Amino acid sequence: MKKAVIRTLLVMGVVTGVSGISPSYADARAAAEAGSFCLYEHDDYKGGYFCINGSDVSLRKNYWVGTSRSVNNGASSMKNNTGYIVMLHDLEYFVGQYYLAKPGSSDKDLTNNSGNPSYDNKATSLEFR
Ligand SMILES: [Ca+2]
Ligand SMILES: [Ca+2]
Ligand SMILES: [Ca+2]
To answer: Where are stretches of biased composition, namely Polar residues (predicted)?
Structure first.
């Protein structure tokens, strides 16, 4: 009995060690992503995440969840789990160079795009259309 418990704990420790993410963090992120538009700090949906359900004129005072790092000029990948077109803009109040995310689309690398400009670490405001 005791051995089984220890073995279970060891397995859990290995799993956590491999992913580097606790199950509760993963659950919270999955819940936030559902039906929302999400930005990620790094390519491949890694690093901090930030999910939103409406337009925001400035991301300067928005932070990657659980951090004090601003979302502004930091997004490197995105998932659009909404039915809206979402336009990212380089400047506040929906101006400057933009990136258009179609409903239900995702992009694991905002640097290389077809039909959109290279857009790594640029998003400063975002607009639901
Ligand atoms: Ca980034
Ligand atoms: Ca910007
Ligand atoms: Ca891309």
So the answer is: 111-129
